[in-house]
Design goal:
The protein is α/β, with parallel strands linked by helices and 358 residues long. The chain folds into two domains: 1-105 and 265-358, Isopropylmalate Dehydrogenase (3-Layer(aba) Sandwich); 112-262, Isopropylmalate Dehydrogenase. The chain is built from eleven helices and twelve strands. The strands form two sheets. It has a ten-stranded mixed beta sheet, sandwiched between helices. Strand 1, helix 1 (13-31) and strand 2 (35-39) form a beta-alpha-beta unit. The longest helix is centred in the N-terminal third of the chain and has 19 residues, at 13-31. The two termini are 19 Å apart. Manganese (II) ion is lined by residues 252, 256.
Length: 358
């Protein structure tokens, strides 16, 4: 029995979350486990009513769950930053979800904008550090509003943050790298940084990366790429990549590019992991306000988030069955992953996956 907190959130979040829950229930029935779902209404509507984002009491409550399933956060009537900081980033930080795991995998039948690339070329994972960098809010203004205004926002990393992220990334590569999956000769972990300009924080990352790799994971091949070059190779030679580890800000940016080459926001999912605590799973895309309530949004990203959740909870067979079902649906059913062009409604896509799982 797993206790799952469900936060459908804003816009199309509730629609896609409903389909993820549908598939989750189908997997539970098929593979012999139970899920107990508790819904929370944090998001833009609640904020407008109560001025509350994610209160401390909710954080304490969320700690009691086995996992959190999130829909989307973002409301057109709420200024940017409030809900992101107050809900999404607050949960990540307070629950110390220090890893953001973002697979980039092109499923069969899915169109990629990359010419001449197919599922055999696009299959890698980004381990995005999720607790530090420019996201810590270190900085401020002086002389704000004057012509001499100065704004500073620092990229901050401690050795502890870097080491715990690298440890996760090496362990993940050992278990799920291309060799471990029978898809290559080596398991390879690449560090994505900017050692030519960010000569402090990425120097720390690079030293820690090689020290840990050499002393504890000598069986894993190590590579280094600057972030700008990483973007270039994502487009030109995505097949070079296996597992990539990077800081919070670069991880944010390269995973939007990653999402596009795997077919877009309709399919990209991520897990905010605290390997020692409560993790939170989400589709990477936003709340897509203009599609709200129309039944046209693609729920596969939310379904893939539920799949990652089951994998993290240790229900590997159920997770594999969901992934196989998603691949069956992309290969044989959907005309496109784009909202309104799938050839099916949001709930029909959920039905197709759930039926296949069952
Ligand atoms: C993401 C998002 C968030 C981030 C925003 C909404 C704060 O872009 O999950 O990638 O920057 O981490
Ligand atoms: Mn992002």
């Amino acid at each position: 029995m797993y206790k799952i907190a469900v936060m459908p959130g804003d816009g199309t979040g509730p629609e896609v979350t409903a389909e993820a829950v549908k598939v989750l229930q189908a997997a539970a029935a098929k593979f012999g486990f139970k899920v107990e779902l508790t819904e929370f209404d944090f998001g833009g509507e609640r904020y407008k009513r109560t001025r509350e984002t994610l209160p401390d009491s909710a954080i304490e409550e969320l700690r009691k769950f086995d996992a959190i399933l999130l829909g989307a956060i973002g409301h057109p009537d709420v200024p940017p930053g409030i809900l992101e900081k107050g809900i999404l980033l607050k949960a990540r930080f307070e629950l110390d979800q220090y890893i953001n795991l973002r697979p980039v995998k092109l499923y069969p039948g899915v169109e990629t904008p990359l010419k001449d690339k197919g599922p055999e070329h696009i299959d890698f994972v980004v381990v995005r550090e999720n607790s530090g960098d420019a996201y810590t809010g270190t900085g401020g203004f002086t002389m704000r509003g004057t012509p001499h205004e100065v704004a500073v926002q620092s990229a901050v990393y401690s050795r502890h943050q870097v080491d715990r992220c690298l440890k996760f990334a090496f362990e993940y590569t050992q278990k799920h790298g291309k060799k471990a999956r029978g898809k290559g000769e080596t398991n390879t972990l690449a560090l994505c940084g900017k050692t030519n300009v960010l000569t402090y924080i990425y120097d720390l990352w690079e030293r820690a990366f090689h020290e840990m790799g050499k002393s504890q994971y000598s069986d894993i091949a190590r590579e280094y790429y600057h972030v700008d070059a990483t973007c270039m190779w994502f487009v030109k030679n995505p097949e070079w990549f296996d597992v990539i580890v990077t800081g919070n800000m670069f991880g944010d940016i390269i995973t939007d590019l990653g999402a596009m080459i795997q077919g877009g926001m309709g399919i990209a999912a991520g897990g905010n992991l605290n390997p020692e605590g409560v993790s939170m799973f989400e589709p990477i895309g936003g709340s897509a306000p203009k599609y709200t309530g129309k039944g046209v949004i693609n729920p596969l990203a939310a379904i893939c988030a539920a799949q990652m959740m089951l994998q993290t909870l240790g229900e590997q067979k159920a997770a594999d069955a969901i992934e196989q079902a998603v691949m069956h649906v992309t290969a044989n059913k959907l005309k496109s992953l784009a909202a309104g062009r799938m050839g099916y409604s949001t709930s029909q896509v959920g039905d197709l996956v759930a039926e296949r799982v069952a």
